[in-house]
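Field reference: "sequence" (input) and "structure" (output). Example, Flavohemoprotein:
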Amino acid sequence: MLDKTTIDTIKATVPVLEVHGQEITKRFYQLLFENYPELKNIFNQTNQKMGKQSQALANAVYAAAVNIDKLEEILPTVKQIAHKHVSLNIQPEHYPIVGENLLLAIKEVLGDAATPEILEAWEKAYGVIADVFIEIEADMYKETEIQTGGWSDFRDFKVIKKEQESDVITSFYLKPVDGGNLPIYNPGQYITVKIENPDAPYHYLRQYSLSCKPNGSYFRISVKREDGINGNPDGDVSTFLHTRIQEGDILPVSAPAGEFILKAEEKPLVLISGGVGITPFISMLETVVAEQPERSVYFIHAAQNGAVHSFKETIQSLSEENAKINSYVIYSNPTAEDLKTKNYHKVGLIDLDWLQSVLPSNEAAFYFCGPDGFMKTVYQELKRWNVMPQDINFEFFGPSKSLD
């Protein structure tokens, strides 16, 4: 537990973090990789270049400072981050390294304002927060390893099938090399894939949603090839998977993790996806069809056009076979072929007026996933419709950020 003086000192730094938080976390990552370059193996360097990771960490540090006297308030966020840590095989020995470099960054950015009292308070606070993470993650590691078909660290999987889903998305079917059992994961969870590119100075770790319902035989991930646009770099891992990984190749994989999962409830289910955000919802939809065939489902997918719309046939087939499934498609920029076949329900972007025209009410379980701008729009429109907070579920592909 933290003493009152430490808590008061941490709370006094909240305004400073509001102004300098991202500068501190950006410098933290620079120092971390300078002092411990081997940790580049763990952190997504594309997110580093784009500033996404430093912003996410700044938000987390700020939340911790605001709630330092009631850390239970941020436990949901801690658990969400802990799932990612377990998927990446973060270990207790990593925490002192992070703390050391975070304090160095605070001292460097704040200069004389970082008094010995402030640095001592943050060292104590970080120690308490790190212990919370370590304890939660230890329980997660144990639970993951002892479940049927579970394992710790990484396990080798063979690519048994590679299938193109659209112009930009390809699915990889993965089966364990050891022939052992697979765990029955929760629909919506993800795995981490380790990519060992001989042309790169370090290996890559990337998390991908499992895009089929649990089956006990294989995993499937569906990966969008990230082509560099608007000054952003090509995706190192997605490009490697699309162009270099073939059937028969071996990929190390972590056990399924994640808290963005389908909840056990009866109310109508609304799945709203944008682009590759469709992947966790295929698993959820297939599971509902198998386990809750009487549950009403509204499956809404937004894409640029039909050429990049993945799983069209899968969703169409499930909709035709199940009267409880209602499927809708939105294209922002339909192709000539789309305009000819009219294989969509709306042109443009998703909005509340349209949602209200296809959904019977706001009393449903809403799940959404997709690009950041798409997610912000959906979130704000659902709030405008007065959807209950507990019925709003979402996940970022990458570092989290505020949708308000």
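The chain has a mean pLDDT of 91.
The two ends are 32 Å apart (CA to CA).
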